[in-house]
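User: For a benchmark we're assembling, each entry needs the component sequences followed by a predicted structure for the full assembly. Here are entry 17's components. Please fill in the structure.
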Amino acid sequence: MPELRQDPVTKRWVVVAKERAKRPDDFVKRDGGSSPRVCPFEYGNESMTPPETLAFRPGELPPDSPDWTIRVVPNKFPVFTPENHDETINGLYLSRKAYGAHEVIIHGPQHELSLATYPTHQVAEVLRAYKLRYNYHKNQPYARYIQIIINHGKSAGASLEHSHSQLFVAPVLPELPAAQLHGAAEYYNENGHCIYCKIISQELAINERVVEKTDNFLAFVPFAAKLPFETWIVPLRHRPKFEDISNDEIEELAFIFGNTLRRFYNGLNDPPYNMYLHTSPPGYDPTDTYHWHMSIIPKLTIPAGFELGTGMWIDITIPEAAAKFLRNAAP
Amino acid sequence: MPELRQDPVTKRWVVVAKERAKRPDDFVKRDGGSSPRVCPFEYGNESMTPPETLAFRPGELPPDSPDWTIRVVPNKFPVFTPENHDETINGLYLSRKAYGAHEVIIHGPQHELSLATYPTHQVAEVLRAYKLRYNYHKNQPYARYIQIIINHGKSAGASLEHSHSQLFVAPVLPELPAAQLHGAAEYYNENGHCIYCKIISQELAINERVVEKTDNFLAFVPFAAKLPFETWIVPLRHRPKFEDISNDEIEELAFIFGNTLRRFYNGLNDPPYNMYLHTSPPGYDPTDTYHWHMSIIPKLTIPAGFELGTGMWIDITIPEAAAKFLRNAAP
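Assistant: Structure for entry 17:
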């Protein structure tokens, strides 16, 4: 099963996912394309995935039958598994089993559609599945941190073309959310309010990086966007936990999230992209300090040696210009 | 000129490199390849680059003439420039001019060769250029941190095919080296010796992840390798600063570095790769705590939404298996 190994210097965890591991010689670059495969995420191929953990279907159909609208299944090559959490220490080196969970949320049955082309009510179903599965996992003993993501398109890391999200449950708090929680808590201690609420009011006042605003949500390009066209979607009012989202808010989020993806789709010609959802970790108490947000990043450049060596990002668009371009793109 | 913007939550800096910035619509995905270009790094095209800052040439030839063996030039689209360091504060948002330097080290005149196929003495010349330019920049007022890297191959982020390195001089200490320096100093304070020296002795004792050992250097796959086949090269004895390397050590480093690249070249069929060199920052005083090292990472997988959202890496090879594979590959 997969393993977590701790970097002895930085104390950061890396996942060594043996279950996904090819043999070393499988990496040898070869000519010729891969042969076409049967898609395990389509109607009729339900037996190709592990048994579902959630599905939306009309009526009284049995699990793992066709005619679902959303289907959630364990990842066949999981990065985290709920099996055990043994720890091993060897001198400087600490490792532990990668205790947790890893699921796939299939966005719908139609292979040729994606969240930019599905209707809004289908996007809302996906978000509803996020909420349900988040609420399930957050109470499990392995849940220290839950990361929901989308990889859309091969060059954004999608190994299957059929539109889907992934939900990872990790037994440790990873480096980036830890840094955000730390920074947000520090700001709160000094200023008595949420830094993300402050960012939102400053973005609305400056009005240079706003892409779209609805009654309850804001889509904007962050001041220090890491990569070209990075766009955040945040609730306008203070909301520490994504999983507390109401049904009405889900409809509205589906609308602005779908619009943002359509701006990418229309403006940048269906680019590959990554999405990640940051929210307060399970059991995280000082909920005044954090504020959930989604980040959507089209995959347009290749982070390379500088980014690997420094952890510092280079954005070759100006965030204000990127926001203007997206505002003018058809939603 | 390029700008540094600070993320208001994590306090990490991002470079917004306007000089490299295409207009937003240049990102729109189009069909068809790019037209062939003239390579600015070949003999006779010296006028296509900014004037050289260093070159190795036999005899008394003038600057920017052909017949060089190594040539260093400012990057034409710099991420950092030595112009000014104005700071701007706007509410929560802090930005400053990206004061610093950004150079290209051209590995040799032959377009079809790379560090894996050049002879060892040419690799040594490249390392000698690293040392000379490092020593030049470390005394400049903008030098808070110097990052030397290689991007080899298009999918590893190389925008020009002709084999070259890049040297970045930043006016801030980036996140990852800061975390390493912090972790190494903490270990030193608790244990009274360098953590990297300890890692080296443990790797030699375990002898599972060693790729090659010479009198003064070790090539090994780290215990918590971030990505498949990540390989480190470190001096066996305590060496905080790369720029203090002796001429003899340069020859030996060129040998083991070239061997490592040839193991990649032969074993993995000339994969794209990134290299970065970590060394004590200019003026960094507690030099007992840090230990310079090179990391070489073939670009075989695509870090995606999980890595972007968490800062946590997934390695789908087992480090011990990767080391065995590389040991058995022809150097």
